[in-house]
Automatic annotation (TrEMBL):
Source organism (scientific name): Streptomyces pseudovenezuelae
Name of the protein this chain belongs to: proline dehydrogenase
Protein origin, superkingdom: Bacteria
Reactions this protein catalyses: L-proline + a quinone = (S)-1-pyrroline-5-carboxylate + a quinol + H(+)
EC number: 1.5.5.2
Length: 308
């Protein structure tokens, strides 16, 4: 399987330098990350929302090594909130954050990440939108869930992400599927050991359906993070069985992947949210997109060969 190899490369400084220097890289990265600055991303937000889509915005960057960098990440999100305020989109444009960007891995990282993310969540609420806490590798999740619980005391609309490939996720889903909760379910995109996570695609797919059933039958608001046509069809059937209306759950997909499907689901009356990343520190995000789906890797390789 190439996925683990690519994920290992995402942590290699040598591979980062090699791929970043390739002339074709920017062209391919632009497929998944359509801008580096807030000014560049605003037209994308306007275009997508005009087509009936919703967004969750991610400022890319995870290799935070100092408190000052964590504060800069906080400030980048606050700048995004300022621009979203002028667009007056409400929950049609929310934000996704990785707590690693806010200093979670540093000394005293739990408290530091909470202190940095709280102003972002507060600012988002002030303009009528919200924030979802992305899931990262399994060692960070207890901290993420604790921060999520703390934030929901004052901002109950704060969402979180759970990953189907982890053994713990069914229990997490049962705990989170309560009234007022917002939970995005994804397959998972980090290299996890066999002691904590399913390794085979068919096992992950079955776990995804089990967890999705828990969320659909619960009292919260499920967010279906998948590009898999079969899982999308299953999600619609589980929603029907649970008596959910189209506005009582939503689909989420990545910018640059299956754009026609985004529009099809929106045209059918589903809430369809596009996960849209921007920023200069794109390497880790880009490599996980390649690892998640062989077609993405083939696209990158073909582009490099054709430009070689």
């Amino acid at each position: 399987m190439l996925g683990p190899v690519i994920l290992a490369a995402s942590r290699s400084d040598r591979m980062r330098r090699l791929i970043s220097a390739a002339p074709v890289t920017k062209q391919v990265v632009d497929r998944f990350i359509p801008g580096e600055t807030v000014d560049e991303i605003v037209p994308i937000i306007q275009e997508l929302t005009a087509r009936g889509l919703e967004l969750t915005m991610d400022v890319v960057g995870e290799d935070i090594t100092t408190p000052e960098q964590a504060e800069a990440a906080r400030d980048a999100y606050l700048a995004l909130v300022d621009r979203l305020r002028t667009l007056d989109l409400g929950t049609r444009a929310e934000m996704s954050v990785k707590l690693s960007m806010f200093g979670q891995a540093l000394d005293g990282g739990h408290e530091l990440a909470l202190a940095n993310v709280r102003p972002v969540v507060e600012a988002a609420a002030a303009i009528g939108t919200t924030v979802t806490l992305d899931a990262e590798d399994h060692t960070t999740l207890d901290s993420m869930f604790a921060i999520h619980e703390e934030l929901r005391r004052d901002f109950p609309q704060t969402g979180c992400v759970i990953q189907a490939y982890l053994f713990r996720t069914e229990a997490d889903a049962r705990r989170l599927a309560e009234a007022g909760s917002r939970v995005r379910l994804v397959k998972g995109a980090y290299k996890e050991p066999a002691e904590v996570a399913y390794q085979q695609k068919h096992e992950i797919d079955k776990a995804y359906v089990r967890v999705l059933r828990i969320l659909m039958e619960g009292e919260g608001y499920p967010m279906v993070g998948s590009h898999d046509p079969r899982l999308i069809s299953i999600a619609q059937e589980l929603a029907r069985q649970a008596g959910r209306k189209p506005d009582e759950y939503e689909f989420q997909m990545l910018y640059g992947i299956r754009g026609d499907e985004h529009l099809r689901l929106a045209a059918e009356g589903h809430r369809m949210r596009v996960y849209t990343a921007y920023g200069t520190d794109w390497y880790g995000y880009f490599m996980r997109r390649l690892a998640e789906k062989p077609a993405n890797l083939r696209f990158f390789v073909r582009s490099m060969i054709s430009k070689g």
